[in-house]
Design a protein that fits this description.
The protein is α+β, with helices and mostly antiparallel strands and about 500 residues long. The protein folds into three domains: about 5-75; about 80-175, OB fold (Dihydrolipoamide Acetyltransferase, E2P); about 210-485, no CATH class. Helix content is about 65%, strand content about 10%. The strands form two sheets. It has a five-stranded mixed β-barrel with strand order 1-3-4-6-5. The chain has a two-stranded antiparallel sheet with strand order 7-8. α1 (about 5-25) packs across α11, α5 crosses α17 (about 405-425) and α8 packs parallel to α13. The protein is globular.
């Protein structure tokens, strides 16, 4: 067995350990028993020179995954601030640990207090900034859980266990604990704010809302009607910084660069650079960083070429990210979707590409790549989307084909406009017209394909159906790859 295959099995074992501990409670006694079993297998294999050596280490990595979740659960249970939830008014002093999330009438602020982070919702004014030291007076509460949305689990992955509303805030000092890293991050947030202002000051809604969402992942100020239309048209994922968004755009960007004459490796390297520039300009958020990591690993896996090697690289990246934060596996839907989208493009895209080329009887290289990337990613993420959100857009494949080819141009012209408009309004107008036309096209497609009947509601799906659908997808993918193995390049 090759070293890469052994590493793959170890990573899978670690991820599986995180999964089973996340859905069921495993006793310490059982964990100790499994650990001893792994040690015995390794010891016996050294004496008998059999393959139990790898199995023994897989069991140890399974235990490691279980223990990693248990450590995280222990930290959550012993968080000092969360024990004050619902206990009445408290007075806390802390540092604003991220740029405020400013909404239409309010702002949400992450405040670090003694090693713990709370999310404070307050009025839009006065404005607060990253690293401001503040005193907060209010009531700590556990994030709400409703039938429609589990806000507690949504914040859990970011290690936020307490929220505070209707609080009284007093600014104590600015730029507390200033260092080189905070200085750089502050400048990134400042640039993002200026670029967002360029869009908001020069475009009217809904153009400004769509452009703000596509470029900066800021969809907080979107109206409910606009959100509903994006959902019905299957375009909502394009207005948020997510792994699926970044991975699909990466694949299309690579195809576009190669179409314009770039070599394979230069196209891959330039795509990675552009992804990280994109994440930096959008504020270097945690979700953006995770999306960039998955996107970069996905591109690197493409350089490796072979499906098995590429998928092992993706699994290794997922294991390393879960080692840092095991809560991502269950509570971060974006992580799940980006992982499945990567596997879809790696395994299903080649066969779909062959099907499309055979259908048109010619090599439509760039366009066939766009179609195959779109379909493969959407097929592999569809069951998860339906399971988590209970809805399915019937026209998503059509709208994706119509919109994704222009997404690189929207991002390019949008960024150029926001940068030049921040410097000079006259320079900004050079890119205003193409940017306005592209967003108008986006809105027109959304308007045509956002009729209520185009969004199908599928509620209360049992998890067994999720496994069944992925088994069918895996089987169909295997059959197609076997059938077209000679035509896949």
């Amino acid at each position: 067995m090759s070293p890469s295959k052994i590493l793959f099995f170890l990573c899978v074992s670690f991820i599986f350990g995180i999964f089973i501990e996340s859905i069921i409670i495993i006793s310490q006694l059982f964990v100790c028993g499994v650990f001893v079993l792994g040690i015995i297998l390794i010891f016996c294999s050294l004496l008998t020179k059999r393959l139990g050596f790898v199995l023994g280490f897989c069991i140890l990595f399974l235990v490691l995954g279980i223990l990693r979740v248990q450590i995280s659960e222990f930290n959550i249970a012993n968080d000092k601030l969360s024990k004050l939830n619902g206990k009445g008014q408290v007075v806390l002093t802390g540092i604003i640990s991220d740029g405020p999330d400013v909404r239409e009438t309010s702002q949400k602020i992450k405040v670090e207090v003694g090693g713990s982070t709370i999310l404070v919702t307050t009025s839009k004014y006065p404005e607060y900034k990253y690293l401001d030291r503040i005193k907060i007076t209010g009531k700590l509460e556990t994030p709400m859980v409703t039938d429609d949305f589990n806000y507690k689990d949504y914040l859990l992955k970011d290690h936020i266990y307490s929220v505070m509303n209707s609080s009284k805030i007093e600014l104590l000092s600015q730029k507390h604990q200033y260092n080189i890293f905070s200085y750089i991050y502050e400048k990134i947030l400042f640039v993002k704010q200026k670029l967002e202002q360029s869009v908001q000051n020069n475009f009217l809604p809904p153009h400004s809302l769509i452009l703000d969402g596509i470029i900066f992942g800021n969809n907080k100020n979107m109206t409910q009607d606009l959100r509903s239309r994006l959902n019905a048209a299957g375009l909502r994922f394009l207005t948020a910084i997510s792994g699926v968004h970044v991975i699909i755009l990466s694949a299309i960007l690579i195809s576009l660069l190669m179409f314009f004459g770039f070599g394979r490796r230069p196209a891959f390297c330039l795509s990675i650079i552009l992804i990280w520039i994109y994440v930096v300009l959008t504020g270097f958020t945690a979700s953006g960083i995770r999306a960039a990591i998955m996107g970069s690993i996905f591109i690197f896996a493409g350089v490796l070429g072979r499906q098995n090697t590429s998928s092992r690289t993706i699994v290794l990246a997922a294991a390393l990210m879960l080692l840092q934060n095991p809560l991502l596996l269950i509570y971060d839907i974006g992580f799940q979707l980006s992982f499945m989208a990567s596997l879809g493009i790696i395994y299903l895209k080649p066969s779909i590409n062959v099907l499309i080329k055979n259908l048109f009887k010619e090599k439509l290289t760039w366009f066939s790549d766009i179609l195959s990337v779109t379909f493969s990613a959407q097929i592999f993420t569809l069951p998860l989307m339906v399971y988590n959100f209970g809805t399915m857009s019937l026209v998503a494949p059509i709208t994706s084909i119509l919109i994704l080819p222009v997404m690189p141009w929207i991002l390019s012209f949008g960024f150029l406009f926001s940068i030049f408009a921040a410097i000079s309004s006259i320079l900004g107008w050079i890119f205003y017209v193409p940017c306005w036309l592209l967003i108008t096209y986006f809105l027109k497609v959304m308007e045509i394909f956002s009729q209520p009947w185009m969004l199908k509601t599928i509620a209360n799906i049992f998890w067994v159906w999720l496994l069944a659908f992925y088994f069918i997808i895996a089987l169909v993918t295997w059959i197609l790859n076997k059938k077209y193995s000679q035509q896949i390049i």
